[in-house]
Specification:
The protein is α+β, with helices and mostly antiparallel strands. The chain has 14 helices and 21 strands. It is globular. Bound molecules: flavin-adenine dinucleotide (FAD).
């Protein structure tokens, strides 16, 4: 059966070597960082595609989807496979569509819009953009590996979001071409508001094949760290930077102790028992930042230039969801949540969580800007895992006190991500993938309708 599938796909792509069947390769291409979740770890380990194919053009994507549509074969799109929640794990076998070869940066326009293919790595785009005075507005801490298409389809924000909001905000995603799973498939242009039909839909309602991604003017950044005696002091200092528009910043992060003890390669910036603040601020403001840290009880432990993704140490490697990775390396019983605290009541929310869960939850804050311009404490707290029930208790308690939670321990959009109440992603799926062949099982509100041929 798989031999027949391989032979058919080999007829579609120009080079048959781009049809992959080796079990070890299929295993790798069928998985991402789902194992961050102790719950998904057991559920998704044995899920595997039947075959993988690496198209190199939109024409090949159209032909592969046409073939899959005719034969009712599921297709799961893959960028670099750095997603969490098993976003690109094929639940029903079929074809993995690996877009890593479609990685061209076509141009950066005069007004700072990158036009690219989906497999382009964000780190390459950041490097190329900075050469001509532009840079990414925001990027995940997986910058070096992650693809632009995977970020738009699976990510939400990251370094830069304290200034530029999430991917869905401020017209950052200008447009894209999306290949549908209609019979026959089409390449359709989505621009303006229409991007939200496909954005962060995990490849369940189309395959992004060309992207228009707005950049920001490049800034000369300094990465810096300071330690504070208590979490409260560290948070107060970080918040004062994050909410004040006079600071030009790309990253404002707070880790309560003992999270900094997990960062083994950069222990020189850590002090035992102290909370750590990590920032990227404009180099012209670095001295002012140092003075503020020192006059508010902090000790500055590091300050150095950011010169692009190859900077060493690259301090963003300890932020966003990399923090969880370091925690799990130190103690495999740790896992995480993805939260948004209230901009006004967060201290009371911290207190209630501390009272109820003690050191089962460790605060890791990433300040972010909302689409309405409000800066608030986003968070990826490190959580000690005992049972699924206890984890669900914590999630329910967070929600009961007004803390937003995107649950990273389920692998369907409706609870894990930013499924939209206006249902436009579902409506797009009904239109573009009526047979439910794109990444099946990840949009659970979708019901296949009888398709008349
Ligand atoms: C250590 C670590 C840190 C992380 N930090 C962050 C962070 O700071 N911010 C953040 O937002 N995320 C973060 N993530 C999640 C992930 O790295 C990012 O979302 C990343 O941008 C995903 O890119 P990728 O190319 O690896 O996508 P993949 O994992 O390959 O795919 C992600 C999803 O998008 C779909 N997809 C991929 N390409 C396409 C396409 N062309 N068309 C349609 N669908 C497509 C896939 O089917 C899948 O559902 C982190 C993950 C890890 C493991």
């Amino acid at each position: 059966m798989h031999e027949k599938l391989a032979a058919e796909l080999a007829r579609i792509v120009a080079d048959p070597a781009r049809v992959l069947t080796a079990p070890a390769v299929l295993d790798r291409l069928s998985h991402d960082f789902y194992w961050y979740s102790p719950i998904l770890r057991t559920r998704l380990a044995d899920k595997m595609a039947d075959i993988a194919v690496q198209p190199s053009s939109v024409e090949e994507v159209l032909d592969i989807l046409h073939f899959a549509c005719e034969h009712e074969i599921p297709v799961t799109t893959r960028g670099a496979g750095t997603g969490n929640y098993g976003q690109c794990v094929p639940l029903e076998g079929g074809i993995v569509l690996d877009l890593s070869l479609m990685d061209k940066l076509e141009e950066i326009t005069q007004d700072g819009v990158a036009v690219c293919q989906p497999g382009l790595r964000l780190g390459v785009l950041e490097t190329e953009a900075r050469k001509i005075g532009w840079e990414l507005r925001m990027y995940p801490s997986t910058l070096v590996k992650a693809s632009v298409g995977g970020f738009l389809a699976g990510g939400s924000g990251g370094i830069g979001s304290v200034e530029h909001g999430g991917l869905r905000d401020f017209d950052t995603v200008r447009g894209f071409e999306v290949v549908t799973m209609e019979d026959p498939p089409r390449a359709v242009l989505h621009e303006g508001e229409a991007v939200h039909e496909i954005l962060h839909a995990w490849g369940t309602n189309g395959v992004l094949t060309r992207i228009w991604f707005a950049l920001a003017p490049a800034v000369e950044w300094t990465q810096a760290t300071a330690v504070f005696g208590t979490y409260d002091e560290a948070f107060r200092f970080a918040e004062s930077i994050a909410v004040d528009s006079a600071w030009t910043k790309r990253l404002v992060t707070v880790f309560e102790w003992p999270i900094p003890s997990f960062f083994t390669p950069v222990q020189h910036v850590v002090r035992a028992g102290k909370s750590l603040v990590l920032v990227m601020v404009e180099s012209a403001q670095a001295q002012k930042w140092r003075v503020l840290a020192e006059t508010t009880g902090g000790e500055v432990t590091f300050s150095g230039p950011y010169s692009g993704p190859r900077t060493q140490p690259l301090l963003s490697d300890y932020t966003w969801n990399h923090t969880t990775l370091w925690a799990m390396k130190a103690d495999p019983s740790y896992t995480y949540l993805q939260c948004g605290f209230s901009a006004t009541d967060c201290r009371e929310q911290f207190r209630q969580l501390r009272d109820r869960f003690g050191d089962e939850i460790l605060f890791h804050i990433e300040f972010m800007k909302n689409g309405d311009g409000t800066v608030f404490p986003g968070a990826i707290p490190v959580v000690r895992f005992t049972t699924e029930e206890r984890l669900n208790d914590m999630i329910a308690f967070c929600r009961s006190i007004g803390v937003y939670v995107a649950n990273p321990h389920v692998n369907y959009l409706e609870d894990a991500g930013r499924f939209r109440a206006d249902n436009i992603q579902l409506l797009a799926k009904q239109r573009y993938d009526p047979r439910g062949l794109l990444n099946p099982g990840k949009m659970i509100s979708f019901r296949r309708r009888e398709v008349v041929r």
